[in-house]
Amino acid sequence: MGLPRALSGLPLAPLVPGYAELAAAQHAAGLRHLGEALAPDGGLRVLDGLYVPAGRGRRRVDGALLDELARSGGSVPRLLTALHRRDPQAPRRVVLYQLICLLQDGPGTVQDLGVHPDETAGLLAAARHRATLDRRQRDAAESLADAWQHRRMHRARTLLERLPKGDPEVERLRLALAARAAAVDTALTAARRAEGRGGKDTASDHYLLALDLAADDRRALRGLVRVHRPEHVAFLRTELSSNGVELTWERAGSDWRLLCLYRTEDGAARVREVPERQDTAVPLGTTVRYAALPLENGRVTGPPLVSHRVLFAPEVTGLTLTDGPERIRGTWRKPPGAVEVTVERTGPDGTAVRVEARPDCFTAAGLPVGRHTFRVVCHYRAPDGQLVPSPGVTATHTVHPWPEPVRTLTATPDGHTVRFDWTGGGQEAEVRLVVWPGRVPPPATELRTAELPPAILVPPAGHTRVAAVAVLGDRALAGPTVDVEVLPPVTGLAARRLPHGAALVSLDWPDGTSHLTVVWDGPDGGGERTVTAHAYRRGGLRLQVGPRGVRIRAAVVPQVPGAVVVAAAGAETVLPPDASIGYQLVRHRRRFRGGSRTLLRVTLFAPAEESGPDVPEFVCVARSGTLRPRSATDGTTVLRIPGADLTRHGTVEQELPAAPCPLPYTLRGFLLGEHAAAVRLEEPSPATLVVR
Prior knowledge:
Oligomer: single chain
Strand content: 35-45%
Shape: elongated
Structural class: alpha+beta
């Protein structure tokens, strides 16, 4: 065909690291092969070198051309430029590999793929001549360079075994792989001998050499882990969580490669890469070990940090134990994936027994007083089907003595206080009477003594729900309740007479009280009135009690149905008979000497059949002008009549002194003394008291 060696060395593999990234960029750009990025209008030559059309000729695809394309933008030219710098032959090898695969895949012509017409026949012959690769072989061909670059010797060997022979580059790789495998075997043999002699440092160096040559050699990895297994303190620490195993270590100065070492169901040793410091791929119920290898530029640079063996069987969290009478209750949060949770109790006598448990709690009843230890274990279904227990979480709690509950509570009024009686509580327990500030706990509720409100001796005024609590040490049991209503006293009770047998009652209305009962009795009869706070504050309290003496009592009306009522000390006042004193000016003409004199007539009005009230002193005061005196000291005293005189005579007349003050003047009477409030003063019209 005029093209020497054009059909020799047809590539079975692209043999470029990062081919997957290059292919992804190509497909994202909508290119069938990378040559379309170099010659988008066709005319591409590949058989005797990689050329693109240039005027009437052609131009070799070299670094300068790729730099020009990369400057125009796009990820594909940029990746091709980097590829050419690493290996100038790589762009042609990749384009030729892709073209042959496209022609072998099915219908289509070379012209459709943008190949120059002069190379159509040669490229078709190349597609017929080179072995056709299936999907598995193509994956191996396209992954081979990455495996070799990362020194994954066993991975590269597996990929090479899938490829047919015939590509010189692939064959050179086979020879290099064989030489490296021999070097790895030599290093492993030397490491095992040194390990057998107890030379751990020498063995570690040989294992590191073998791992540097073959980064995926499990023998070297297991040897390193075996040599550097921790005896006491592990520098690679593990912590179980519900999602996996958390790895922590001192990570300064290096990149790290994390590995998980485990065994399969049939006991075969396996190694798995761990992408992050939290391993979420470890199966429940399996035992694993971890290793962290320091890396520099992707190569292991020193011995690994190795963890202790760890069983991935997470424990329950939030384990809480609370005691009650002869029992202990435990609660926890069950981790995901646990098939069951078992509980074992060890009592004060050292005997261990199984406790029936639910997935998130248990209650052990009938326990003796003393310390009890509980071990809570989670069980997981391992991959081989066996049920694997966790190490278990242990907690200790004490069963304390508890009092007997109070069965009944009664309250009985005793004068102005109350007496409480109860049954139950036991001989050793103390029974406290308390008032709960909020919701009252039901009887037999288990409490702590420190939680109790202060004990009470006498309930406060108002409605109180008194509860009995049995107390023994730090433990207490809530008991029954009884409603007690202590009525507040009525203070400030007083009454004064009104005309026509009426009385005006005044008092200090007790706070929080809505109704009062007022009762009166006397010779004229008695009665009872219920008064509301609203009515009293709006209009006061007037009673029709009659003219004679009467006794008035006031008490608070109970408000709580069914409550035991404790009455307050009675509020009582005695209203004397309806007595009044009236006075008026009387003028008498003198019979012999002529002229007239001015008298003041004072009269006591009181029921005749009664002993009569204590009568106060009557005082008459004069003040110049026509304005009445305001008090007994607001003017000149013109006369005084003792109460005894009024009681003895009924009516007393006294002559006013002549000109006690300048005319005109105004008179006014006042009642003085401790009994002044018991007698009404009936005053005449002010106009009749002006003396001119």
